[in-house]
Structures are given as C-alpha cells and as structure tokens.
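User: Predict structure, ligand copper (II) ion.
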Amino acid sequence: MPIMVPVSARSFAATLFGAATLSTASAVFGGLAAQEVAAPASAPHAQLLHTMAGSPEAVDDATPAAAEPARRCGEFDDKPASGFPQPEVRESAKGVLRTSLVACIGKNKVLDAPSGEMRVIKTTTYEGAIPGPTFVVKPGDRLLIDLTNNLPPNPTGLRDGMFPHEQNSTNFHSHGLTVSPLGNSDNAYRLMPPGSTNRVKIDIPADHPTGTYWYHPHKHGSTTFQFLGGMSGFLIIKGGKGTLDAVPEVAAAKDLVMGFQVIRTAIDGTQPFVHQDAEQFGTFPFFTTDVKQQGVWSTYGLDGAPGRSFFYFTTNGVTNPTVRMRPGEVQRWRMLNASASENLMIDLEGHGLNIVAMDGITVSKMYQLKPGEPFVMGPGQRMDVMVKAGDPGTYRLLSEDPSAVSASVSPSGKIGVAPRNSRHSFDFPSPCAAPAPVRTVGIVDLENAGPNHVAGHGRGQILNASVPAADDPCAKKKPSILAFPFPLATIVVDGKPMNMKLPSDPLPVPEGLPTVAKMLKKTPDVRRNVAFELCGMQEGTIMARARNRLPSCGWYFEKYADIWGGKPFVMLQMMRDADDTGVANDDKEMPLIDFKKDGLFNPNEPLFDGMVAGNYEEWTVTNRTYSDHPFHIHQNPFLVTHINGRPLDQPEWHDTLIVPGTIRQPTNFLPPPAQPNINKIRHGSITFRIYFNPITVGCFVMHCHILSHEDLGMMQRLDVLPGKDQPSVCPIGPSAQMEH
Ligand SMILES: [Cu+2]
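Assistant: Predicted complex:
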C-alpha cells in the first residue's frame, strides 16, 4: 500500500516541508469559542495595515497578525434579503496584505429554492462567511495570512489509520498563482490541524499576470468535505497601466465577483463525514436512516434523497441573488466555479456573454457569445465576462443541465461539442424525476455515483437488489428538489439608459508569461502523456464486463483490495503516466501489469523525472473514461493548443480545463449494452505547452478538480528541478504529509 504513510513519517515530514505551526498563537485563540470573539474585522484590520509602513520586508514574520478573531463564526452571516452580495474585501496596502483568516463552523441561512424554505446550515467556512473574504493584492505584493483552524477537533476513533480521515485538518492553496510551492508559501502539502495557527507567506512576483484567482483548502482527503461547507474565496490581483483593468471600457464597468458554490448538508443542516463503517459509496439502501451510513461526500446515496440531505447552489452564498443594471450599462462579472464537483453550463437570457479573461489570464481576442449561447466552466475555472444590459426586463443567468445541453470545453465553441456530464451523480439534482420509482436498486454513472442509486431516480444500470417501495422516499412525498435549468442569478434591467461600450480587441497581452508566439515556436524540451483512468468495482456493475473496463483494472483491484478502511475500493480514480505502458503478460483478465508508477496518488514520489525549471514542455492529457474530468496543475498555467487532437484557432491559457470524456459521451446508460466498449472508443484529450517558471522550483501537484476524485487519488506529484540533472529540492520517500 504505497500511499499509506506511517505516523512517524508524518511527524518527520512536518519539519521537512516547513509546516510552520505557530503554537503560541493557537494558545491565544485556539481555545476561544468562536462566538465569544466578535470584534468586527474592519477596524483592527485597517489599523494593522496602517502601522505596517514600508516594504514587505518590514513586516515581522515571527509575529502573528493581531487577532482578527473568529468574526461571525457561530453567528449568522446575515446577508441582505435583496440585491447582489459581495464578500468582504481585504486589500493590500504598501506592498502587503496582512490578515488573519479563521476556519470555523459557520452558521448561515440559505434559501431552498424549490420549497421556498429558508434553512439554517452549520458548515465549514472561512469566518462564517460563504464564500470567505476577497483578498485584493497587486503584483509584487506579499500575502501574509495567519490561518487559524478553529474547526472542531478531529474525532478520535473515527477512521483511525484509514482513508479518508481527519476531516477538520486543513491547509491553504492559492489557486492559479505562479509562486513558490515550498515552505509556508503555496504549499498544498502542509497540514494545519484544528487548534493551530499557521503563517502563510506568499510573495507574488512583480510581473505576475493580473486577474481573478482564488484560494481554498487542499488537505488531501478532506478537500471535498470542506468545499461542500463553503470554504473558498476570491484572490484578485489588480492590474495597473497596460493591463485589462486599465482598458477604459473595463475600468468604467462595475466589477462584481460571482462565486458559484454547491453547499451540501444532512437534513439537520450539519455536515456528516464518512462513518467508520461506511463503504466507499455508502451502503444499501441509499435512503437508510442509519447514521453510520451517512457521509457528506462518500455516501453518494445521500444525493438528493428527500429527507436525507440538501443541496444548495449559491452565488456569493445566496440562492439566486439579483443583479441590477441600467439599459446599456456594461458590467464585469468575475465568475468562479467553486463547486466541489459540478460542471456549470451557463447562459444568460437575452444577452451575450463576452469573455475577456479565463483562469485570470486576459485573452487576446474577446470571445463574444450569442444571447443564450452557453459556455461551460469546470470546477476550479474562472471566466471574466463583460455584459452589456439590453432592454428593460428581467433575465435569468441560467445553470443548464450539463447532460442535456452541449458545449465545447473551450468557449471558441467548435471542437468536441458534447454534453458535459461531470457531477457527483446523475441522481442530482432531481432524484425523483420521471420515470416513476421502481423497486430495484441500480448503478447510475459509474464514475460519478455509487452503487446505491434507485433506478428511476436517475439513469443507470439496474441491479437486482430489491428495495421495498414503501421505504422509497420518492414514493411517499413529492420531493422539492432542484431541477435544471435553474437561475444562478436574476438580472433586473431598469432605470435611465446608459451608453457604455464593451472593450474592443486586441486586449492587453498578459505580463509575466512567455508570449503565445514564443510558446508555440519553442521546440518542447520534453513531450509527455498523462491519462485520467478509473476502475470500477467489477462485481455488480457494468464493469463486470471486460468490454467496459480498462485491461489493468483487475490488477489494480488486487493491489488496492483493502485500502478503503480495510474494505475494497468500489471505485479507483486515477491519473497515470500514459507513456508508462506496463509489462504485458498473457493473463486475459489482467493483461497489463507492472506499471512503473501507480495511477493512484503517491505523495512520496513525483510522477515524472526531468522537469527542469526554465524548460518548455508539451503534454497531452487523455481522458480514458466516459465522462469529463477537469485537469488542474498548480503553480504554472498552460497554453492549450489542441482539443481532441484538433488545433484551436486561438490557443488558450488555463490553469484548469475540462478534458473531454469519450467521443461521443454516452448520455443514456440504459440498457448496459448501449455502453460503448471503453477500449475501442475515441478518448477525449487536451494538448498544451507549459513553461516551468523558475520561481516554482519544488514540488506541487496536478489533479482532477472534481474534488471527490482528487480526494480519492486522481492526483500526482510533480517536482520542478532547479537545473538539469540536479536533484529535487523536495524529499523523495515516505515523507510527504498529504497521505491518504
Ligand atoms: Cu475526475
């Protein structure tokens, strides 16, 4: 079991990876109940900034920022009943943004749109707010955060030594930033247990591209859990002269952040984790009342089962808030898909969306979508769009059904137009929709769901296990469950007309990145291939048929037989070096064995050798599964040149992009023979050029941004070496903290 790390190795790692824990600070605020410290953040915060004159170097790194305590944790984060809320803004001054940040259980009210009920939720948050505060900095600034983890202690005796566990440990990732991954910078390997205060110090290069970035927890095994409570926030790098922010039409536009999140709780508003006895995807029957079987992300049977769990699609923490615009007004919307797992298929009624930046990076030519034309955002992606209001009226910004509406993964809209299935489950969000409930239990989407779905509540293969209809919650009560399409926001256009203009091409070239021409002209130092792969449990699923599984699956299942708390993994989510083809044998069930490196995340060893700072490489990421997986790489963005092997007219910078599933994606899993042979279909892919900025020397990860996949192991470590033939600056061996 190469991804299990003994406890002794873990504590050793704390030193190696520089996980600086300010225990004195945790003694100061770690013991205080959240609601006892309710000072408003703004006043002391402003004072702090005021007293820290001079360069970032003037800041005393040893001194934790004064307590800006667990404001609002445990109190209601009351948002105005109408209008479009914006998270609290914390902006840098004189080269530094110094702040504290508290992870805690927050109490919020959220509207359940289908029922009209306002419900109380008690979930993992930053400072009680969903999303957390917006950090605004400039290139060259230092980000200095004292992150106090006031989440409850990790339960003792729950999943000890098993994966996943310790759901209340956290850490900090600045998604999209090209900064150091080492020490207390943007280090996803750090571990911040409950009760600790941890210094995060990120120096942003003076030529960093300006735009819309974000931050979120990245503790392996608990990322999905913390996301489902609402833990994430915007991190905006503001630009000056020569950047998108200075384009007159952009500068004149109202600038709104739009953070899309999916919050998920049990019926009492709390977030259960994975019970000791729970199997990977829960236990039959899916609507069991046995608390042992509940788990907010692993027990997929909770999906939408009325009375068992609730979902909320929120925009800045609110269900369907209202944006007001005057006719002819132009606004800039910074959209972020901060959901743990859902592709968002977005369009705006009556209006075209004009994309000016993707994943923070300004595009060279604005993508002008037609009114009602959808684009897709995978989890983790950002899109900055300019919108020009039309005639007075009310318009909905819609989240369309990604299995019913088709789009390319690129807003150029041309290559690989297909449904964009990628979610926790096909049950969601309308489990009791037609056809009528039947009395059999079945599989839905093998990648995204578990074995606990009732056929008729979704689309899937029917198994033979019977469930009494009387126990079926869908049979008892008409469910009030969200159904696609639904509004992410409502746009009300009224008032005195304005005559604002959209920006025109060309938009400014982003700073700090090699030019597109240079990226394309350089002969790659290395070419590599990566593959998303998965193996489903063979018994009782469509993967029981060889035609429906990859040849290596049998080998993997033998190898990982007891990794899920001593039980079999139902589903292995993997990312592999696709140039490592394995050694073939003549066993028909397991024809490929002995890959050099595993597909499951191994924190102790980089997937590739010879990734050298300053090098240019070309990678193709292939998706050998039936549905989409969003690819994300930390530290360095990539320039996408091809989708499904076909060249893009206009190469695109991204740090996260959906790698299309099979071509075409099966949209109906019934009956099983309709499922194409996974080994004979065409697989989706993206091809990109990447430059390893020397500032990123160290070790970091790439992974699927469906965070339940990432938490399960669809991730790999990458080491950028300081020079050719030089060793990694990160330890190799059983030392990493991000163990399963
Ligand atoms: Cu995935």
